[in-house]
Amino acid sequence: MPASPRFRPEPAFSHGRAARVGLLWCNLGTPDAPTTPAVRRYLREFLSDPRVVEIPRAAWLPLLHGVILPLRSSKSAAKYAGIWTPEGSPLMAHTLRQAQALGTELTARGHEVLVHPAMRYGQPAIGTQLDALKAAGATRILVLPAYPQYSGTTTASVVDAVSAWSAGVRTLPELRFVNRYHDDPGYIDALASGIERHWEAHGRGEHLLMSFHGVPERTLKLGDPYHCECHKTARLLAERLGLAPEAWTLSFQSRFGRAKWLEPYTEPTLQALARRGVKRVDVACPGFVADCLETLEEIGLEGKQAFLAAGGQQYGLVPCLNSAPDWIGALADLAERHLQGWPTRAAADAQALAASRNRALALGAAD
Question: Is 21 in contact with 136 (CB distance < 8 Å)?
Fold first, then answer.
């Protein structure tokens, strides 16, 4: 039996076709449906990533398949069912709209960039979308993760997935990666504008809690910059909003397992705020650029219940950036900076193609 080919077949090539630039907008991922089998497939892929769980495989995988997936899948499916929409997963719907809006904004600015959405776990997969960009003629691709703060558990995992795809490709495109934008002025302004819009529509609470996704504390001790970048985002956002130090708090949510994670934890922080007399709190999730299970269910429902049960009276959940025009504009600014030097304008592509043809004609005449 012949051996399988080392590399996947290349897309059909035609001479004279202008090279194109692609942008891969990468989010974490979501189950295909709010069902136990779909959630189990998603969690299996997610929790099997050694970037996400650094426990030795021999110890972790039997625990994952024998205990965690059987117990967690049905519980998570019920939570997903509570936030599912006619469009499907909120994270998927927002990510698709963000990619489309970013492509439209770049086109309006005179750029020709193929913007494709991708998910690190689930569909559309990173490798599938990179194949699609190559098939469409992209020879240069910017990989832009939907993670403002760098972490080995998220940003680096996207790079791993791109590298795994690259190992099976004969003709590689040029690749660039955006590792972080936690202190980008446009990102901070978009966050602040979203909070201000929430205040204008619903009134302003006594205290603002900024809740970021948690990671194990050991990652900080091992050199992961995520903790520091979350703190910088929160500080810059508080300064932009003109908040006094006592008017806001940073916390970390989504703890998993028994190990110590970054503190303070979000739910105990909400309870402590209520017990010290804060009657009205607003919660924003600056590290999430799209509303998802962690914002809508964990913060919007579980966090609210914890705050009210501890004596709080009013609870406001600030929507994520989603497809707000100021955020899409900031994202386009970020993309433009990282695309510099690549021929993203139609006129530039036409000139380069004409110059190439002229050189070929000149060489032919010289022969």
Answer: no
Classify 185-317 by CATH class. alpha beta
Starting at the edge strand that comes first in sequence, how are the strands of the sheet with 20-29 ordered?
Answer: 113-121, 20-29, 138-145, 174-177
Query: Tokens 């012949």 correspond to what residue?
Result: 2
CA distance 192 to 237: 6
Identical topology for domains 20-180+325-350 and 185-317: yes
- Domain 20-180+325-350's class? alpha beta
Among the listed residues 208, 221, 283, the one whose alpha carbon sits nearest the alpha carbon of residue 253: 283
pLDDT at position 353: 47
pLDDT of residue 45: 98
Tracing tokens 């499916």 back to the chain, one arrives at 77
Q: Which amino acid is at 137?
A: G
- Note if the pTM is more than 0.70: yes
What sign for the dihedral angle of Cα 252, 186, 320, 315?
positive
Model pLDDT for residues 129-182, shown as the tens digit of each residue: 999 999 999 999 999 999 999 999 999 999 999 999 999 999 999 999 999 999
Q: 298 labelled as ligand-binding?
A: no
294 is in an annotated binding site: yes
10 Å Cβ neighbour count for 161? 22
